[in-house]
Specification:
The protein is mainly alpha-helical. The longest helix has 19 residues, at 43-61. Helices cover 62% and strands 0% of the residues. It contains 5 helices and no strands. It starts with a helix and ends in a 7-residue tail after the last helix. 0% of the residues are buried. Helix 2 packs across helix 3 (43-61). It is flat and about 55 Å long.
Length: 101
């Protein structure tokens, strides 16, 4: 029975068999090494985590949505005639920030 539970965990493990190679200056590598050590990670872990986060943000920024013709016209109308700022918003935008008071 111990083998079947072990086999199940192997089945769900993520394989890391693809290699990504990059070249970097000594200065860049030193900065990456320092940041990785601050997070308690190996350099490769830090770089992969950082690159993946950046990739996910880039993909999310490229979301596409599709509208039927009527909804598309309404959307364009909203873009062409945005709401005017309220009096409250105008007041907030013109007052001094708390750190300057």
């Amino acid at each position: 029975m111990a083998q079947s539970s072990h086999a199940g965990s192997d089945h769900n493990a993520v394989r890391k068999d693809d290699v990504i190679q990059i070249r970097a200056s000594a200065e860049t590598k030193a900065i990456l090494n320092r940041a990785a050590s601050l997070r308690g990670q190996k350099l490769s872990e830090f770089m992969l985590d950082s690159a993946r986060k950046q990739a996910e943000e880039t993909i999310l920024d490229q979301r596409a949505f599709f509208l039927d013709a009527d909804a598309h016209e309404k959307f364009l109308d909203l873009l062409d005639a945005p709401n005017k700022p309220s009096q409250e918003l105008r007041a907030r935008m013109t007052r001094k920030p708390a750190w300057e008071r």
